[in-house]
Amino acid sequence: MQQRVRATLSLNAAGLVRYLYGLPIGIALLGGYMGATGKALPDMGPAFLPYALAAGFAQIIGTNLLLMAFGYRNYVAGTAFAKTEALQGAILAMVMLGEHLSLVTWAGIAIGVAGVMVVSAGGARLRAADLVQPAALCGLGAGLGFTLTSIFVKSATFDIASQDKVLAALVALVAVQAGQALMQGSYVVLREPQELPKVFATWRTSGQVGLLAALGSACWFTGFATAPVALVRAVGQVEVIFTFGFSRLYLKERLHRHDVIGLVLIGIGVATALAGGG
C-alpha cells in the first residue's frame, strides 16, 4: 500500500500519510483501551514529550534513508544493512538504557541478522567494499534511525505515571504520531505545498496505509514498553518470514535456495533469542 502511494506522492508526502491518517487510529486505540479498562489518561513527566518528539523524528529520518537506499544501484547492500537494526539495538540499548542480555540472546540476534542479510542479498555475496558505498551507508543510517526510535519510545514510556505498560505504549503512540504529523506536515506545507492536495486526494489508499502503520506501531511500541529493545527487534525479524509466506501463498512467487537458508536462520535466531531472554 505504501508503494502505491509513493507512485503518486513525493518522498515526504508519502511519509506524511502514515502519520496524518494513522493519528486518528492511534487516538481510537487509546480511547478504546481506556474505555475497556476504565483507566484515565495518566500523568506524564517533563521528559515524556522530548523523548516522544525525538522518537518521531528518528523514525522519519530512518524511513527517508531507507527509501533513499532503494534509489541507489546497489539495492542489495542498502536493504541488507538496514536490517542490522536488531544488532544496533542490542548495543545502543545496553549503552543508553542499561539493558543487558544473555549470551544466548546475543547469539540468537546474530543468527537472525545473518539470516536477514542472506535473504536481503538475494544470493549475491556482500563484500567489504559494500560497507562504504552510498546504499550501505543509507541502510546503516536507516537501521540506526529505527534503533533510536525504539530507545526513545521506551524512554518516553518510563516517564508516564502508570504501571500499565499497554496504556503507556498507546499514550506514547499518539504523542509520537502527532509530533510526526506536525513535523513532516510542516515540511510539506512549506517546501512542497503542491503535494498537499494529493495527500487528501489519495485518501482511500493513504487511509489504509495509515491504518496499517498505526496498528503495526501500536504493537511495536507495546513490545518496547514491556521487553528489552533488542529482544523485540530480534523477534520482529519474523516479518521477513511473513513476507515470504505472503509472496508464496498469495502471489505464487517461488522461493530460492538462499531464501530458504535465510528463513531457517531467522527462525533459529528468533527461537534462540527468546530462549535466552526467558
Structure description:
- The chain is an all-alpha fold and 278 residues long.
- 78% of the residues lie in helices and 0% in strands.
- It is built from 14 helices and no strands.
- The longest helix has 27 residues.
- 46% of the residues are buried.
- The model has no long low-confidence stretch (mean pLDDT 87).
Number of helical stretches of at least 4 residues: 14
Radius of gyration: 19 Å
Q: Would you identify the regions where 5 or more consecutive residues have pLDDT less than 50?
A: none
N-C termini distance:
36 Å
Secondary structure blueprint with pairings:
Elements: H1 2-6, H2 11-20, H3 22-37, H4 48-71, H5 75-82, H6 85-96, H7 103-121, H8 134-158, H9 165-191, H10 196-201, H11 203-226, H12 229-235, H13 238-249, H14 257-277
In short:
With 278 residues, the protein is mainly alpha-helical. The chain has helices spanning 2-6, 11-20, 22-37, 48-71, 75-82, 85-96, 103-121, 134-158, 165-191, 196-201, 203-226, 229-235, 238-249, 257-277.
Key traits:
single chain; about 280 residues; mainly alpha; globular
